Amino acid sequence: MKISHTFLLILLSCIVSACKPEPSSEQTQSTPIAADAKTTTSTDKKAPFKNCQFVLGFDAWEPYQYTDVGGRVAGLDIELVAAVVEGMGCQLTYQQGTWVDLLMALKEGEVDILLGASKTEAREQFAFFSDAYRMEEFSLFIRKGDNKLAEYETLSDFIKNGSRIGIVGDYVYGPDVSTLLDGPETSKYFVNAIMGELNVARLLDGDIDGFLEDSFVGATLIRRKALSNYIVAHGITIHTGDAFVMFSHKSITLDQLSNFNTQLEKVKTSQTYQDILNKYSY
Q1: Total domain count, the chain
Q2: Where, if anywhere, are coiled coils annotated (predicted)?
């Protein structure tokens, strides 16, 4: 049974991936989220700048930024920023690439905007940062109907009771989890995986008792694999920081940055913002 769960889930992931069009290393589109190719986010009456158009670079990471089966640019971050740019009366075009290549393009002013960025001193040498536009957060997921585990209030409660927690090796889960991972008596209760899909299979097979995953990524995994009757969010969340928009020093003015932040605040206090978050939540 364990072999079948793991095999079928990984096979399903491969099939879903195979159905998507293969992205090029550099894909430029003028399509806003879920719109036809000829549509833009321009609103001329609102535009404070003439010829206001931004090139947004994205490195595919569902559900934040990706291309759907129809080849359209989509995602939570894409929708949020598109709503802000529309309020500015500007247009977006999209350029897909690897994160490393896009950072270089931002430095040179070939790309104007990158999303989901962490603010560092090194990056501030070549980029402006917006105000925070969303939180970075991990959630703990468990098997549905596991009432005993559902009563635990902290990760320490899981560990004290001998529960095993799946993690992805390259993720940074914040200082509290890092302390548990570094502890000689607590680290043995964490099980590493190379990708989130493997943690899903291990949970279904009973090899682990829960797993930590980015809250929106976990919700997407469960929804895409139709596992809502088997896996649920426990309720334990870990806030690891904030996400920012990066703007190129070479192509974006401080006035444009200020206008972006003004419109961002309007979006964040609107129902549109909550609707977008809810669309991608568990």
Answers
A1: 2
A2: none
